[in-house]
Amino acid sequence: MINEKFVFILEDRGVLYINGSDTNEFLQNLITNDIYKVNDKNSCYASLLTPQGKFLYDFIVVKYKNGFFLDCEKNIAEELYKKIISYKLRSKIDILNLSNEFVVAAFSHSKFLEFQGAKSLAGFTTKYREDPVFLDPRNKELGGRLIINLEKLYLSLKKLNLKPENPKIYYDYSFNLGIPQLKTNLLKEQLFGIECNFEELNAIDFKKGCYIGQENTSRIKLKNKLNKRLLPFKIIYGSLKEKDPITYNKDEIGKALISDNYNFGLVKLNNDNFSFDKIFKCGQAEIKFFKPKWLNI
Asked: How far is it, in rounded angstroms, from Cα 126 to Cα 124?
């Protein structure tokens, strides 16, 4: 659990802002989740996919004034900005990259519940003064998040009695929950969005209308063809690189997609050699997968 007095200033997160009279309809036709769920009381997690349903970008959508913040990894913020602009055509929208002006801060679930009117519901949103505060829509155990102008940050944290700590504590905690947040650019076009566990992480609304990549995403779901999953693993010893094959007795059951301190691999679940109890080879390493508590497999 995260200490309720800790706050983590996530300098590796970027913030885009999109508004304009066509914003809702525009985003509804692009992203995997239902933009009409997002309001002053609720935020959502969503993704932008390729037309074939492959993963491109993920982000959290938060209502702010007359538009929406997109809370994303900073290293893909400008690329995401350009991708959204490429779909604009004649839509009446404006989009700004505010990554140098706004910052994302994360803190514990228990601290979030101290805010007036807060509820223990993933995505539940309230305000601290004029700034959105929300319980992470991916999984409420990730805790609360605040998106705030950098100039106001430290005074607000002081008033909230929150002490800045090393973000590594937060990312260690996220990894142990089995939720990737760093180097997600390495997932780009390497797997289908639904294989990122987006259903369990509340990123896909299967009842909304069409969006980019919707056809293949729905087909995989309806025909029960979700045979691969992005899973966290720990290195027992040795080293590996991204895209190294993962094998058991020379049978390839997947590949590493994210490596470093927080490792994730795409795995064939229907392979007889896959089990959370087994030790696998990957590159020059031996690895072991672990199953997140929230994952339905």
From this structure: 7
Asked whether residue 140 falls in the same domain as residue 263, the answer is no
If asked whether residues 132 and 37 sit together in one domain, one would say yes
What's the confidence (pLDDT) of residue 65? 95
What are the b/e assignments for 26-62, b being 16+ CB within 10 Å?
bbbbbbbbbbebbeeebbbbbbbbeeebbbbbbbbbb
Residue 192 counted as domain residue: no
Q: Which of 224, 220, 223 is CA-nearest to residue 192?
A: 220
Domain membership of residue 193 (yes or no) is: no
3-class state of residue 292 by DSSP: coil
Assign residue 185 a region (left: φ > 0; alpha: ψ between -120 and 50; beta: otherwise): alpha
Count: domains in the chain: 2
Write out pLDDT tens, residues 173-203: 999 999 999 999 999 999 999 999 999 999 9
What is the domain-level CATH number for residue 26?
A: 3.30.1360.120
In a domain, 153, yes or no: yes
Report the distance separating Cα 71 and Cα 61, nearest Å: 7
State residue 211 phi and psi, 5-degree precision.
-150, 170
For the entire predicted model, the pTM comes to: 0.97
